[in-house]
Design a protein that fits this description.
alpha+beta, Ribosomal Protein S8, Chain: A, domain 1, Dna Ligase, domain 1, single chain, 3 helices, 123 residues
Length: 123
Amino acid sequence: MYTDFLIKIKNARMAEKKVLKTKFTKMDKAIAEILAMVNFVGKIEVKGKSAKKIIEIELDGKRRINGLKFLSRPSLRRYVGYKELRAPKGGRGLLVVSTSKGIMTSIEARKQKVGGQLLFEIW
């Protein structure tokens, strides 16, 4: 699940690791691509074949992960419309949303006028 994936990234950065290798899921790959787009992580590679795929992430991003807040969990899912999406921490953070058009940031979701399930905030 993406919560474990994000905690692994945060812990690897705090331990000053250069590369993180973890199991591949489509959701983790989508989240890693968003984090790479906003410079929280570096280059992303998917290696292996079908059942034994892994994601290899370089942790040399320019931005540090100072905080992480999970907004939805399996027992309590939170959904919002596109008008209610905002940027956390006065625009310095990133809000990630799962929409019908895929996983995207709140800024992209507002532009495409789609709401969805709030996943997490990162700053």
